[in-house]
Amino acid sequence: MIVVLSWVSFWVDIDAVPARISLGVLTVLTMTTQSSGTRLSLPMVSYVKAIDVWMATCMLFVFASLLEFAYVNVLSRRKHVVKKSEKLEEISLKNGEQKVTPASAHLTDSKKQARRVDKISRVVCPLFFVIFNLVYWLYYIYA
């Protein structure tokens, strides 16, 4: 349930940074607490238990959601760097020869890219989690 809760951040607006950070950090801390609590309640053994695999993978998914937010945040705030060729276009614009796309249009493009990453994550993360569940449960039921 915590893994699914971490995916809520994919639907939160990219400009709502405090909400997305809070959601990401709280889900990571909750998974950490659950994992350590589970480890303490089970006997110490020298091999990897099924619950260890489950908790580690869930932690990976939750942490990946937090990393996705970091990537989307950086992507959405990326500024357009004016290149040398664009400076030449700006000069010729003053003479009325060419039209130059303003830097704000590139900033809008970076926000569109960030929103696109969120939309892709809304599908890819649950899909990978379902695949993991199928493999995990089939392995431990029939192994």
Automatic annotation (TrEMBL):
It is a multi-pass membrane protein. One of its GO terms (molecular function) is transmembrane signaling receptor activity. GO terms for cellular component: chloride channel complex; postsynaptic membrane. The chain crosses the membrane at residues 53-74, 120-142. It is found in: Postsynaptic cell membrane. Residues 1-94 form the Neurotransmitter-gated ion-channel transmembrane domain. The keyword Transmembrane helix applies. Keywords: Cell membrane, Chloride, Chloride channel, Disulfide bond, Glycoprotein, Ion channel, Ion transport, Membrane, Postsynaptic cell membrane, Signal, Synapse, Transmembrane, Transmembrane helix, Transport. This is Neurotransmitter-gated ion-channel transmembrane domain-containing protein. It comes from Potamilus streckersoni.
